[in-house]
Amino acid sequence: MTHAARPTPRELLSEVGDVLHDLPVLLSAPLYRRWHLRWGATANETTESLPGDSLMRTAQFRSTRAITIDAPPHAVWPWLVQVGCLRAGFYSNDLLDNLGRPSATTILLDFQNLELGQWIPMSPAAPSERTALKVHSFVLEEWLLWTKRDSTWVWRLTPTGNGGTRLVTRIHVAYDWSHLATAFLGLLLMEFGDFAMLRRMLRGIKQRAESIAPVTSRTGSGHRSSEQQ
Prior knowledge:
The protein is α+β, with helices and mostly antiparallel strands. It has helices at residues 9-28, 33-36, 43-47, 73-81, 94-97, 180-211; strands at residues 61-69, 119-121, 132-139, 143-148, 151-159, 165-173, 223-225. The chain contains 6 helices and 7 strands; from the N terminus they run αααβααβββββαβ.
């Protein structure tokens, strides 16, 4: 099952505008790499341990970004659960990461079932170890870890004192230079494209979670890990 029809001409024009707006950031990202790898995160957040850290110790790319959302964790969680190309999208540059189909602006119940090992498609291609992440482990409404052979991507949701959420995300990527084409493509995507796309994604999640009434997703329970199944 996929989400959303092809974009209307107006939506497509808006998506082209978003890409053009982000183009300077995409092209210049390596110039301020040290800053953007920690965008929005505190010093403690960049150094603390998160799930998945031990799985990719040889990673050449490591980023920790964060944003504060004026909505509780249970209202933020469903937006993460439904992420994926041709699912809810990535709330980012849809022209680049969702075939132009607008990312969801509502909670999609069809994509709220979260299971260990399920695919998180990164492209319209059939899910595989090369084209998709997998749900590795999670604690309901606290953290969610996606993994791929060469990368990990974790999200952590921490309640703030005023009913909001501190959303922290960390990505590790290891470039396998024994496969030059794959490694070079990964380097281009992460070193140039990642910051602009991830920043827009964080802001997209924030805008969506804050704009609608809280929705609680109760599709799992407690702490589950792939090693325990």
